[in-house]
Amino acid sequence: MSRKEFTLMRASQFFISTLKEAPADAEIISHKLMVRTGMIRRLGSGIYAYMPMGLRVIHKIENIIREEMNRAGAVELLMPLVQPAELWQETGRWQKYGPELLRIKDRHDRDFIIQPTSEEVITDIARNVIKSYRQLPINFYHIQTKFRDERRPRFGLMRGREFTMKDAYSFDRDVDGLKKSYQIMFDAYVKIFTRFGLKFRPVAADNGAIGGSGSHEFHVIAETGEDALVYSRESEYAANMEAAIALPPSAERAAATRSMQKVATPGQKACEDVTNFLNQPLSQSLKVIAAIRTDIAAGEKGHFVVILMRGDHDLNEVKTQKIIGEFRFASESEIIHHLGCPAGYLGPIGLEKREDIALYADHAVTVMSDFICGANEKDMHFTGVNWERDLPLPENIADFRNVVEGDPSPDGKGTLAIQRGIEVGHVFQLGTRYSEDMNASYLDENGKPQLMQMGCYGIGVTRIVGAAIEQNNDDKGIIWPTSIAPFEVVLCPLGYDRSEAVKKTADELYESLKQSGIDVIMDDRGERPGVMFSDWELIGVPHRIVIGDRGLKDGKLEYQGRRDTEATAIPVGDMAQFVI
Ligand code: ATP
Ligand code: MG
Ligand code: MG
Ligand code: MG
């Protein structure tokens, strides 16, 4: 075998395994297509093997991230997957992180965690290796496996439990330095997502106690996104729904506030539905829960969604759930009144439990009631309450709206529009949140110890694979942007083993594309053209070239871009130039 043949990327030697049908558990298109194209294989809930086709895409994403991170002056290292609990105890997150943190023990009964993120470890490293102001600023990053025991792993790689993240951590002398480091990362992210060839939008995100413009999320725009994004059509203003600022009520709004609006309209049928729901046999206790935004103080009006849940005592295992009402401009007491709950049935529950249930609803809701009731118990019926029908369960808290389409933009420029997005990156000014707890300090010019100012910057590497597909697909399959496609060009020779002319042309074209740095694969499997074409359309390779005896008679090859409806005949000699 000649060296040239040996280096050929042949489909027959690569692993290609496409499926006609998607698995039953795949709800969204990207998950379906990833399984159908053989990119991933599920091993357990939220745990996947990255198969050869999928891994190529992941590597391309990682390479772009690496190039831009390095260009921005960040330095790569690799922190361990397994981290000692002691570090997490120092920052209090051992207690606070909740059930998403996977805790394990070694043979000596010592506690460890599998990292969901690496602030503790990097701060520990920094406090040990950084002594002087001369070593700052510095930005360390790694691309590493993460584990988060998500309550609802779903959508394939989009919300896995094990996934790959690029996480970076900057250390600065002061707040000004931190702001600069943050801006450098923000700009690098814009470059990274632009190079992916995806439509994306950076939005201001909630920054908890730190406040200001200290946090942004990067979202890939897609209908199926879990988050709602708010932006002004006429200015730069953009925020996720949680961080979106509602202007003081207009006269119109003020009027609406006076009488509580119930989104669902009353109906007897719905009332029966709810009663039936409550009457289902229960192996465990039943909970009825009103969910409320955490940032709404008692007595304040806001947007409420009331959810019935059935599960074990702590609602760790939610068996069934149903939204029974949605209220805008309502207060807690108005809702209680409206639901007709006997006084005392609704009452705030303990903080720990609140957080637990809040996690279920993706962080931003707090349970305001926790009472056992059921259709079996006297006076605990909900009979007579006017619920109308099932409302779709919001996929995310983003459906609890702060603002609505058409509201005035907070910067006074234009009106707001809403679109959905997938969170693929998050940049955050941490300040001294970690350096304080862990005493990460350096000596300044005067030899005085100062706390380091930190920032952290994540990109969901494997989530991007799903997000890219979610944004780019048609009824035939995936349509990869070239920069992250598993292969850029596929050569489809018709009769590679039968026709000398076809083989020779295909091999030569392969060679010239390869030499131009194009990532090309030769489909030498000997499949029928129909099978071959539909496989590559499904897989989503952006450029296809067909080499057949018929075309070669006229000295032509067939080119078809993945979005083209028809093939174009191109002279053999021009093809390499055409594709490059
Ligand atoms: P989400 O709101 O989707 O749960 P997050 O805000 O908890 O994400 P971060 O802590 O900001 O996530 O992590 C940085 C990035 O890691 C996210 O922007 C996202 O792209 C990715 N990511 C987070 N959780 C997952 C997951 N379960 N599966 C895949 N990627 C994830
Ligand atoms: Mg999360
Ligand atoms: Mg988030
Ligand atoms: Mg985030």
Protein structure class: alpha+beta
Shape, per Cα inertia axes: elongated
Largest sheet: 9 strands, mixed
What is the percent of helical residues? 25-40%
Which kinds of small molecule does this entry bind, naming each only once? adenosine-5'-triphosphate, magnesium ion
What is the rounded Rg? Answer: 28 Å
Give the percentage of residues in beta strands: 25-35%
**Total count of strands:** 29
Mean pLDDT: 79
Measured distance between first and last alpha carbons: 28 Å
User: How many individual helices?
Assistant: 17
Name the poorly predicted regions: 1-6, 249-298, 308-322, 340-400
Pfam families: HGTP_anticodon, tRNA-synt_2b, tRNA_edit
Family: Belongs to the class-II aminoacyl-tRNA synthetase family. ProS type 1 subfamily.
Domain Aminoacyl-transfer RNA synthetases class-II family profile: 41-481
GO cellular component, one term: cytosol
